[in-house]
Amino acid sequence: MDQVGIIAPETRPSPWGVAAKPAVQCSLVEVMSEELARKLQLEEESHVFTEEVLSEDGPFLNADNIDTSSDEVLAQMLQMQFDKEYDAQLLREEKKFNGDSKVSISFENYRKVHPSEENDSSEDEVDWQDTRHDPYKAVKPTPTPKKGFVGKGKDITTKHDEVVCGRKNTARMENFAPEFQVGDGIVMDLKLSNQVFNALKQHSISEQRKSARLHDKKEVSTAEKVVDPKTRLLLYKMVNSGVLETINGCVSTGKESVVFHASGGSMEDQEIPAECAIKVFKTTLNEFKNRDKYIKDDYRFKDRFSKLNPRKIIRMWAEKEMHNLKRIHKAGIPCPEVVLLKKHVLVMSFIGKDQIPAPTLKEAKLGLEESKQAYYQVLSMMKQLYDQCNLVHADLSEYNMMWHEGKVWLIDVSQSVEPTHPHGLEFLYRDCRNVSQFFQKAGVSETPHARELFNIVTGLNIASDNQVDFMAEIEALEKVNEDHVQMHGKKVSLYQEDDDDDGPPRIYDK
Ligand code: ATP
Ligand code: MN
């Protein structure tokens, strides 16, 4: 978006401005600005993360505090508000018109915001996922309704209808490269003709190629920014649709993600926690490249992996985290509850209070008694994870467990795999080593060493008394499983099947 001149709110009073503290407001322009992205980048580089949580700058993004000093932004906001109210009125009229009649007539074609735009559908993108049902199946984009007869045969709308088509074209602009500034047409009721759309598309492609050639280095650095324009728009839409009330600030900037705190809003048929965490998976591939092995060999994702482009692989990480969190939550293990997933952005319940995240086990200063309690919780959690969820965390350590309300909470499960993953048992052994070392250091004398912990969790009695032999046995077990898969196309039944209905049916050779 072009920089829009900012006129101080005092000189341009507006009904939308919050008069009390104009100086600390965070504007839409700012949210959309490169400066913010740069600031995030700096924060990331200086590793000042958690201190930023309660920044005095007020909410990061809030429907009420959007700067109204720009006519352009104001016009867009008003248009959106108007469209929303118009559609609500239309819905009421439709209900009234149809009454109890068995045959109903849809007014959908008269809506200002076409359902296909509302759902943000576009041909090659995964859409809002219905996180309450099968997370594996992306909800099919609401199809553009077949435009048959509407009304009394007077108004026939076809899919070639100028308005419908124009709106679709505008929505499709979102698929252009993030660097290609498409402006805010998407949120306005902008209609692009096929001709204009095609010209823009062509331009976008050639620009992309040009900048890839000329600014190879610069390209990498822009890709590093998590909150790129597309992500900002996603977040903005979440606030605008009321799912979230405000996005308050950054909780953490990790290697693979940036986590924000948000105040929950409301959704028609789903309760949203008062405090939410938004995990934005980085759209840069650098970090994910070395994590290929977690997902590529995970048979749940195997078929899809090869067909995906990099953008989609990142979305798959977010999807994987959501899916794993749901399984873990279902088993009753304390972990964030999934609210919704959109593309590479996962919204979940916030572990902590009043915008302050609970400390990780690393940060929490636990006394000996509490450490002991924590150890037993972690032990039973690991067993439950293995037995009931059929999962291995694969990055379990004091950094990925939080201490909240006297309980250990599990987070960061995007890399978690099933134990039959070709490296599943190695990952588990590494988890055991981290856990064992941490609690031994904390002085919990009951803590067994890693090998013993591994045997307790898996129930596999590996007898070796040194790490080298133990590892060799683990690898041999993994190999047996792999060979079995090679030969029969199925996995061995080392592991218990759970009744989880979240994924495609899993095949066990009983
Ligand atoms: P890292 O690379 O640092 O491990 P990551 O990208 O893997 O980070 P997470 O470990 O999931 O991301 O989250 C990073 C941090 O964000 C956590 O240590 C925690 O402080 C915070 N966080 C993540 N999820 C939540 C949540 N649901 N509630 C509160 N805080 C959270
Ligand atoms: Mn982490």
UniProtKB/TrEMBL annotation:
Q: Which UniProt keywords apply?
A: Antiviral defense, ATP-binding, Cytoplasm, Immunity, Innate immunity, Kinase, Magnesium, Metal-binding, Nucleotide-binding, Phosphoprotein, Ribosome biogenesis, Serine/threonine-protein kinase, Transferase
Classification via PROSITE patterns: RIO1
Q: Mind listing the GO molecular function terms for this protein?
A: ATP binding; metal ion binding; protein serine/threonine kinase activity
The GO biological-process annotations, alphabetized, read as: defense response to virus; innate immune response; maturation of SSU-rRNA
SMART domains attached here? RIO (SM00090)
Provide one Gene Ontology cellular component: preribosome, small subunit precursor
Main localization, broad class? cytoplasm
Cross-referenced Pfam families: RIO1 (PF01163)
Q: Where in the cell is it found?
A: Cytoplasm
What class does this enzyme belong to in the EC scheme?
A: transferase
Q: Does the keyword Electron transport apply?
A: no
Region Disordered, annotated ranges: 134-153, 491-510
What is this enzyme's catalytic activity, as reactions?
A: L-threonyl-[protein] + ATP = O-phospho-L-threonyl-[protein] + ADP + H(+); L-seryl-[protein] + ATP = O-phospho-L-seryl-[protein] + ADP + H(+)
Q: Which EC number(s) are documented for this chain?
A: 2.7.11.1
Domain (RIO kinase): residue spans on this chain: 216-459
Required cofactors, per record?
Mg(2+)
Entry's family note: Belongs to the protein kinase superfamily. RIO-type Ser/Thr kinase family.
Partners and quaternary state?
Interacts with CASP10. Interacts with IRF3; RIOK3 probably mediates the interaction of TBK1 with IRF3. Associated with 40S pre-ribosomal particles.
Q: What is this protein called?
A: Serine/threonine-protein kinase RIO3
Organism expressing this protein natively: Xenopus laevis (African clawed frog)
